[in-house]
Amino acid sequence: xxxxxxxxxxxxxxxxxxxxxxxxxxxxxxxxxxxxxxxxxxxxxxxxxxxxxxxxxxxxxxxxxxxxxxxxxxxxxxxxxxxxxxxxxxxxxxxxx
Length: 97
Known about the structure:
By secondary structure, the chain is mainly alpha-helical.
C-alpha cells in the first residue's frame, strides 16, 4: 500500500497540515496510522467532510470525485462508494429502499 504524509494530504486537500493532523487524531481519515509522532495516510484516502457549513457538505462529494479521477486514478464509481458514507440519506431516499 502506498502512503502519503500529512503535508502531502494537506496540499491535495487544500487545507493546512495541522488540520489534517487533527482530522487524523479524531479518526476522520480512513486508514490513517500514527507511527511514533507522525501520521501516515493511505494514498487514496478521501478528504473528510467539513461539516461546519451546508455548502461544504454539498460540495464535498463533487470535490472527492474530481480528486479521485485526477490524483488517484480510480473510477468514478469507486469515488462515489467512498463518498457515500459521508452523505446523509433523506427521508424520501430511505423510504425508496
